[in-house]
Amino acid sequence: MFVTVSDEKLNEVKSLIPRLQEISGVEIHYDDKNKFFEIDPKTQNSYEALKVVSVIKALGLGFSIDDALRLMSDEYQLDVIDLKISLGSNPDLIRRVKGRIIGEAGKAKRIIQEYTSVIISIYDHYVAMIGTYDQLSIARKAIDMLIEGREHNTVYKYLDKAEEELVRYFSKNRLNNIK
C-alpha cells in the first residue's frame, strides 16, 4: 500500500514512523525518489496496514498526531470531502464554501464538532473528519448541507434533531440490553 503527503508534512510523518510500526506491527518505508510511503503488513492483518494508511493521510490533511492516532482504534474512521470534486476547480468558489464551513470566527465548524464529537480539519481543498461511524454520518450531512448552500440555522436545526435521535436510539438500546 502506498500513500503520499505534502512536503510540508513529510518530517512530521517521518517522525511518527517508529511509533506507528510499534503500534501496528507493519513495516513502513519512505521512498525518497518517488516521494511516497510504502506500508507493508508483513505477516500482520492487512487491516492494521489500512489503519496506518489512514493515520498518514490524516496527518497530511492537517490533523495533529494525537488526533490522527485515534484512527488506530477500530471505532474511529477518516472521512474526506474533496471540494474540487464537489465544486470544480474555481478557487473563489472553494474559498467561499470553506468560509461557510468554518463560519464566522469558526462558529459553524465548532458547532458541528460539538454536536457530533467529530474532529474536523480544513486543509487546502479538503474537508477531513475523524470520528465514529454514527458521528461521521451526521457531520458529513451537515457539511454537505453547507456546501449545497443551505442556511447555517437550517444546518444547526438538523444537528439538534440528529442529536436527539441519537440520544433516543442509544437510550433505547441500553434499555434493551438490560432486559
UniProtKB/TrEMBL annotation:
Signal peptide: none annotated. Residues 78-163 form the PNO1 second type I KH domain. InterPro entries: KH_dom_type_1_sf, KH_domain_protein_archaea, KH_PNO1_2nd. GO terms for molecular function: RNA binding. Gene3D superfamilies: K Homology domain, type 1. Keywords: RNA-binding. This is RNA-processing protein. It comes from Acidianus brierleyi.
